[in-house]
């Protein structure tokens, strides 16, 4: 099962990624100024996953990606895929596991390994 992972960007804004069962990033959200906005959008997405739209694109370098739309608004952008089949597998994983995936918060600066 995948997971939503909350982290901080270098500019101190929050973001989340959806990772696959194998730990690969499937998509990355937009930036959020406050962490609770990020958490709220994850829960909103999990509840409305059936209504999500996936707009598929091909980059100038020939890679495939999608933009995730929720309620008509741009919600997240996927990583780049080498084939359209892999792109579709990423979308299928979101649909299959997104609503029951756990949320992991790595936005704090709590280091597990001390110097």
From TrEMBL:
It comes from the Bacteria. The lineage of its organism: Bacteria, Pseudomonadati, Bacteroidota, Flavobacteriia, Flavobacteriales. It comes from Flavobacterium glaciei. This is DUF1508 domain-containing protein. InterPro entries: YegP-like_sf (IPR036913).
């Amino acid at each position: 099962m995948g997971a939503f992972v909350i982290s901080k960007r270098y500019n101190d804004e929050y973001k989340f990624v959806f990772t696959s069962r194998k730990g690969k990033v499937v998509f990355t959200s937009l930036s959020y100024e406050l962490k609770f906005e990020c958490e709220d959008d994850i829960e909103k997405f999990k509840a409305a996953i059936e209504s999500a739209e996936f707009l598929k694109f091909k980059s100038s370098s020939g890679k495939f990606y999608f933009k995730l739309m929720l309620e008509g608004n741009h919600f997240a952008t996927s990583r780049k895929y080498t084939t359209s089949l892999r792109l579709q597998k990423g979308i299928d994983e979101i649909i299959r596991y997104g609503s029951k995936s756990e949320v992991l918060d790595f936005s704090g600066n709590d280091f597990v390994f001390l110097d």
